[in-house]
């Protein structure tokens, strides 16, 4: 009987502890959205009070109505699909090349001597300054847009990969060698995992940058995409649609960041700093 009472007390105690834990977890998930929600509330109240001109900054409800109309007509999905394809393609090309060259120059001193100076000179040229030259090279087709964004996302991945490879603890490498690891096994089991946190920082930064560059590249005679939709709305003074485009970039950028952090937590689950 005594054992049963103790057991029930233990269950009740555990339930009491679990409830605050559950509330803390929900509050922790909601906390990052408090400031955006407050800003939107202030924006709506200011518009209703007449402090903001609807021509300059429409109220949030008007922006929501514009987004709903674009969604129902199917126009929004078409632009989002086109922009997402451009972003993913450019990231695959630019990020992939950045990763490969970062691994190459980070691993081999001769490759660094041959390539790094040239790449650092190119890095200091703003991607947007290449627009006139890119139009001469590729015209105004998709290739020009993909090239511009690829150049922009190349360098964050390249630099962080190079830095990650060079920052691996030398003592750890020596210890692995003393246990008989060498060649590809040493690279795969010690050097690459050691460089992975820095590589993923570069990937995360590049995923954010891709949307910034995309909005500019989609102004180059595009016929679809969020940038085209925004520029087209500007011509007709549709400020609510312009804001829909800007908020879409913000949401897609946030989504890309969440995906990158999820990949980071999964691949670095062994790392004490990411648990």
TrEMBL record:
Domain ABC transmembrane type-1: 80-260
Its membrane topology: Multi-pass membrane protein
GO annotations of cellular component type: plasma membrane
Transmembrane segments: 87-109, 121-140, 146-165, 186-216, 236-256
UniProt keywords, alphabetically: Cell membrane, Membrane, Transmembrane, Transmembrane helix, Transport
Cited Gene3D superfamilies: MetI-like
Any one of the GO BP annotations: alkanesulfonate transmembrane transport
Leader sequence segment: none
Pfam family, one: BPD_transp_1
Source organism superkingdom: Bacteria
Subcellular location: Cell membrane
Family note: Belongs to the binding-protein-dependent transport system permease family.
Protein name: Aliphatic sulfonate ABC transporter permease SsuC
Gene that specifies this protein: ssuC
